[in-house]
């Protein structure tokens, strides 16, 4: 697996691995008919937007690292419920 592909699978780098997997599985299950997987695509898009907004807020506040770790994200989601 290429380094880039490994980073996309890393839960500390990519907060939306589960959503990526779900949309890929939907595409596989539905013979790559995109119309059948719209809900999964929207879920992924919402996930990316949510964590991008968090990252930008942390950057503005000078918090490092800009993307919370997987453990930190899990605690955040548990405290607020899954917002996406």
UniProtKB/TrEMBL annotation:
UniProt xrefs under InterPro entries: COX23 (IPR051040), Cys_alpha_HP_mot_SF (IPR009069)
Key words of the record: Disulfide bond, Mitochondrion
GO BP: any one term: mitochondrial respiratory chain complex assembly
Similarity section: Belongs to the CHCHD7 family.
SUPFAM superfamilies for the chain: Cysteine alpha-hairpin motif
Region described as Disordered: spans on this chain: 61-84
Protein name: Coiled-coil-helix-coiled-coil-helix domain-containing protein 7
Subcellular location, principal: mitochondrion
PANTHER family reported in the protein's UniProt record: COILED-COIL-HELIX-COILED-COIL-HELIX DOMAIN-CONTAINING PROTEIN 7
Localisation: Mitochondrion intermembrane space
Record-level GO cellular component terms: mitochondrial intermembrane space
Provenance organism: Buteo japonicus
Keyword Membrane included in the entry's annotation: no
